[in-house]
Write a structure and sequence with these properties.
By secondary structure, the protein is an alpha+beta fold. The protein has 8 helices and 12 strands. Among the domains are: 56-136 and 257-293, f41 fragment of flagellin, N-terminal domain (Up-down Bundle), CATH 1.20.1330.10; 145-250, Immunoglobulin-like, CATH 2.60.40. Helix 2 (56-96) packs across helix 7.
Length: 361
């Protein structure tokens, strides 16, 4: 894994003013940064390199980041699969174990479960978690939303007056929000009002095809949201008086979190075994997804090199940047750049020979 290239300067400048314009463009040398989570949905299935402008070094650095993140995710998923396999084997044994051995098996099951829960929280790349609470990949290029419904909202009743809706959260900040709903507002207008009110908690509200309110939140925040929301109103959309706890239902009813596995009784153990099978299937799908990410990074890198207008000779036959081509900032050595670029290219499965060939006019 390549050390990040950092500099207090934002660009490298061409030392030869006679170079063509395409060579004289600034070449940023920056640390690998986290990709914004606010990407259009239609781009989420592709590597974020596609369609980006920038220098070969910057885009290759981004390719390295994506590939390394995918590798970290793959490693965590494989470890989770191994732990689930051990849990499955031990849970089966516990169903048929003699009474004097069940306590020991229960303790072992508890320890394995805790390891799995800990993995979802501590498997990281560059300080960011790579797994969601349900063991799905948590990639910055592919932000995921958790859809859910809130039971108890009465939208179809005739409203005689305006109403203030209040929502209190058991966890996170802000711990409460509220929205004023006019008595003549439509369901779509109510959804817009609630989206504005819930914006500090990153909750979006829309109207689904059935005319009901559909809620969604970034997947990494769902665990916090589902701990509890208390609601109160003026007696029309929501009951007046003391707040009542909302019934939140995830759209993915088959989703299971490791911490929800229960091996305390034979019945719950059998359910846990069925949940483990589903989780292991999802992990295999996720591993396949990570492989696709790696292949896409490689294809994107090859494409950007093919279409790159940089003059041949910037990288010589040995895959090394020519020192005469640029002038590095005082605190960034050419040796650092010279060592970083080939390693970044190797991370994305691009050989020096191929790089040189692609850059030839």
């Amino acid at each position: 894994m390549v050390n990040q290239i950092t500099s207090s300067h934002s660009t490298l400048r061409s030392s030869d003013s006679t170079q063509p314009d395409r060579i004289a463009k600034q070449l940023p040398v920056v640390a690998v940064a986290k990709v914004s989570d606010k990407q259009p949905k239609q781009q989420q299935q592709h590597s974020s390199l596609a369609g980006k402008n920038g220098s070969l070094l910057v885009q290759t650095s981004e390719a390295h980041r994506q590939a390394a993140q995918a590798q970290s995710t793959q490693k965590a998923l494989q470890e989770a699969s191994e732990l689930l396999g051990q849990l499955r084997q031990m849970a089966r044994r516990s169903l048929n174990a003699q009474e004097n051995k069940k306590d020991q098996l229960q303790q072992s099951l508890h320890q394995l479960k805790n390891k799995l829960v800990k993995l979802t929280r501590e498997a990281k790349y560059e300080g960011e978690q790579v797994l969601h609470h349900d063991l799905t990949p948590r990639l910055s290029e592919q932000p995921q939303q958790e859809g859910f419904s809130v039971k108890g909202l009465r939208l179809n009743t005739l409203r005689q007056q305006d109403e203030i809706l209040r929502f209190q959260f058991d966890s996170g900040t802000p711990n409460s929000v509220r929205a004023r709903i006019d008595n003549d507002e439509t369901t779509e207008e109510i959804a817009d009002k609630l989206s504005q009110a819930f914006a500090p908690r990153s909750i979006q509200v829309e109207v689904d095809k059935y005319g009901d309110l559909a809620f969604s939140v970034p997947k990494e925040q769902w665990s916090e949201i589902k701990k509890g929301i208390w609601m109160s109103g003026g007696g029309q959309i929501l009951p007046s008086g003391n707040p009542v706890k909302a019934k939140l239902e995830s759209k993915d009813k088959a989703a299971v979190e490791p911490q929800e596995l229960d091996f305390g009784k034979p019945q719950s153990t059998r359910k846990a075994l069925a949940d483990i099978e589903r989780m292991m299937q999802k992990i295999q799908q996720a591993l396949s997804q990570m492989s696709k990410v790696q292949r896409q990074v490689s294809l994107d890198l090859e494409q950007l090199m093919t279409t790159n207008q940089m003059k041949s000779g910037v990288i010589n036959a040995d895959g090394v940047i020519e020192a005469s081509w640029l002038e590095a900032p005082d605190d960034v050595s050419l040796q650092l750049i010279d060592n970083a670029v080939p390693t970044l290219l190797a991370q994305a499965n691009a050989s020096r020979h191929n790089v040189v060939a692609l850059l030839e006019p």
